[in-house]
Design goal:
The chain is mainly beta. Helices cover about 0% and strands about 40% of the residues. The chain has a single domain, classed as TolB, C-terminal domain (Neuraminidase, 6 Propeller). It contains 1 helix and 25 strands. The strands form 6 sheets. It has a 6-stranded antiparallel sheet, with no helix packed on it. The N terminus is likely disordered. It comes from Teichococcus rhizosphaerae.
Length: about 375
């Protein structure tokens, strides 16, 4: 297993300088413009074809944000969630054929007999975009357990139309990430009805859940498709250090909690080594922690210098991380808006602008707009 690049410090130092409302980065100049407000801990976002945006709120509400930034009343029909700690209504994605089917997929924390778990739900957005209809739970990441941490819950569709979903290790028993009869701490690859996807690496193997595509994952809150290569990139938080970006490969084991670069929150050692035989190294890792959450590759025209870059919303470092990418390699990074606000997610709109969700009780959607250099 080849050694992963050590990233205790940024490859390039903090480069953004704010002046007169303009932020100057290495490859673009922009303004941070308030776009929508009145959201309680917004978590996931999906743009409709007409430019309006569906936004989840962790306590269990789904809102429609208009092109003018107006926030709707909560949509009806949203299923109940386990809204405590890190749990609640989390990610949302449109089906690839949404224009025809109006199908949406939601990921949430759910309370069942035996505790809480990560759940995938499919629904149809009503014609007036005021309600969810035909709501159907598709998959529970069993077994359930008590506790309200590390649900994972990001969703992404691959080029083949298969649905990918992350699940966290649920925090109290990190060893679940290595248990192959357990759906916690995994990357799942599914058909759109929630069944195991054709071609999954463990189909038919005794004692292994057929939904599993990759394992050994801790707290994965970012998942993005690289438009240049068609590969999926998974982003996860380590404990005290050891945050990672991983290139998703069929059957790969990313090592948690056997290996890694972080320590326990107490400062105690967790791992005997940073890597090991048969375990996949991250593309990049961070110590101290930056707590990466939502992720998006930029493909728009508004910021030509950012095209092909990967953006990560960060929580503990309270900023936006820009990564330069060549193929499936990370070649550098730039820290933007660092130390300003907790960011849960970053998404590209159909207008080619970037939208940021702030992780606050009075949460907002912020928009990055080009500015004269």
């Amino acid at each position: 297993m080849a050694g992963a690049p050590a990233c205790a410090q940024p490859a390039r130092g903090p480069a953004a300088e704010a002046g007169g409302g303009v932020v100057r980065s290495e490859a673009a100049a922009f303004r941070v413009v308030p776009f929508a407000e009145g959201l309680e801990h917004p978590w996931g976002a999906a743009f409709l074809p007409d430019g309006r945006m569906l936004v989840t709120e962790r306590p269990g509400r789904l809102r429609l944000v208009g092109r003018d930034g107006r926030v709707s009343a909560p949509l009806s029909g949203v299923p109940p969630v386990a809204a405590a700690g890190q749990g609640g209504l989390l990610d949302i994605q449109l089906a690839p054929d949404f224009a025809d089917t109006r199908e949406v997929y939601l990921c949430q924390a759910a309370r069942v007999s035996g505790g809480n778990l990560t759940r995938l739900v499919r629904a149809r957005l009503s014609a007036d975009a005021a309600a969810l209809e035909a709501v159907r739970p598709l998959l529970d990441a069993t077994p359930a357990q008590d506790g309200n941490g590390h649900y994972g819950c990001r969703i992404a569709f691959g080029r083949d139309g298969k649905l990918h979903m992350t699940t966290g290790d649920r925090q109290r028993d990190s060893g679940r990430a290595q248990e192959m009869g357990d759906l916690a701490g995994k990357l799942l690859r599914l058909e759109r009805d929630g069944s195991p996807a054709a071609g999954n690496p463990f189909l038919g193997r005794a004692g292994v859940r057929p939904e599993i595509y990759a394992s050994g994952i801790r707290s994965p809150q970012g998942l993005a498709l690289n438009p240049a290569t068609g590969t999926l990139w998974e982003v996860e938080m380590g404990p005290r250090g050891g945050d990672e970006i991983n290139l998703v490969r069929a059957g790969a084991n990313y090592g948690w909690p056997l290996v890694g670069h972080g320590r326990a929150y107490s400062g105690a050692q967790i791992h005997e080594a940073a890597s090991g035989p048969g375990l996949q190294d991250p593309l990049r890792h961070w110590t101290p922690s930056i707590s990466p959450s939502g992720a998006a590759f930029y493909t728009g025209d508004a910021f030509p210098g950012w095209r092909g870059n990967l953006f990560l919303a960060t929580l503990s470092s309270q900023g936006l991380l820009r990564l330069t990418v060549e193929g499936d390699r990370v070649t550098g990074e730039e820290r933007l808006l660092w130390g300003e606000r907790r960011l849960r997610h970053v998404a590209q709109g159909p207008d080619g602008l970037l939208y940021l969700l702030t992780d606050e009780s009075r949460g907002r959607v912020l928009r990055l707009e080009p500015a004269a250099p």
